[in-house]
Amino acid sequence: MAAPQLEALLNGQRRALAQSITLIETGGPPARDLMRAVYPHSGQAHIVGITGAPGAGKSTLVASLALRLRARGHRVGIIAIDPTSPFSGGAILGDRIRMQQLGGDAGVFIRSMASRGRLGGIAHATADAARLLDAAGFDRVLIETVGAGQSEVAIAHLAHTTVVVEVPGMGDDVQAIKAGILEVADIFVVNKADREGADLTLRQLKAMLRLGELADPNWEPPVLPCVAIRDEGLAALADTIEQHRRYLLESGMLARREAARVESEFFAAVQELAVERLRGRLGSAGYERLLADLVGRSVDPYSAAEQALGGRP
Amino acid sequence: MERKIRVLVAKPGLDGHDRGAKIIARALRDAGMEVIYTGIQQTPQQIVETALQEDVDVIGLSILSGAHMTLLPKVTRMLRDEGMADVLVIAGGIIAEDDAAELKAQHGIAQVYGPGAPTTEIAEFIRSSIAARPSSTQGDNGGATA
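Structure tokens for the assembled complex are given below, as produced in the milestone run.
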């Protein structure tokens, strides 16, 4: 990336930021050059993941939360992820429909992102896009995942604070002790809390937390009722996110999470680079031949991988 | 990796009929594009701001209210002011032939579709227009990402 464009990005120029996100979504060497230049300028933002089932009200919650954070003087970047069709490769990105009230505010930047085949609720480019927003001066980055089921926990590796959104009537108390998404929550929100059964859901989540050991013994995830569409409970949510941030900073957990985060990004970068170099070395015909050999069982994936990385050590 | 075609489908103006817009959004998704759908009653400002943040290649404007001769030129004018004249803008809805001709000739609307236009034709128009575009549209990044 040319220096003027990097400067424009770091100055928070919206077009440069938007084009940079497109560049990293497309990937390849230019994307890496960009992220190399941006990396030293990142690390300021607090990243908040918002996850939960489709229809739980994540987009509405994100919009209301962003308004609160704006009122407190933060600049808010939003990445909203929707699924890519596995058949056509296309996607409908519709989260902005619920975020209209954020329009016309230079302190907010919203980007819709398709998952592009990545499972786990976020896209391949999500971490880098968050870093770009961070470098462009957005000190709070909200990431809304794909409507998640029970195992879309990738967001927890990316976010500093993970908010899991539940709604009343999602199942009995056995659902609440199952593994997965409920384990990664730093904060629970029971949205649509004006509906019947909200009290029960609140009680079940609290009971679930007391049944076993906490992921972090010093932070019991608060369970907060909200009615996002009527802007109820959002001040408490914004307060709790800030509390969690302070807790992470003071306990040293932020540094530990950051280390884990950087490690998983590093692994992903190694993997991407290794595959790219392999394809470059083999050429497309050679790569197709290797795949055919794997399918035909004349080579196994483990030996092929060892060979790709220069043979047995 | 290939660069995906990103399309903003929006409805400017006050009419609330979004069935056509949804059909187009769905068809373009099925054609492998990423479609940002923002729903009804969008102002030209909102449309241009969204197009900028989402870095779209194409804007599809669905309009049935009759206000197309005011709203559509406003969108393309604002795009030009933002330095985004390279974004392909197409329109669909109830638009008289004379109006369509004027929108195309004078107001930077690349194509106008009426009711019943085959969605495959629209997808193909977008794809060929994007392919024919000079690669410099991505500023400093364009050539390198292709």
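Residues 68-81 of chain B form the longest helix (14 residues). The radius of gyration of chain B is 14 Å. Further analysis is deferred to the final report.
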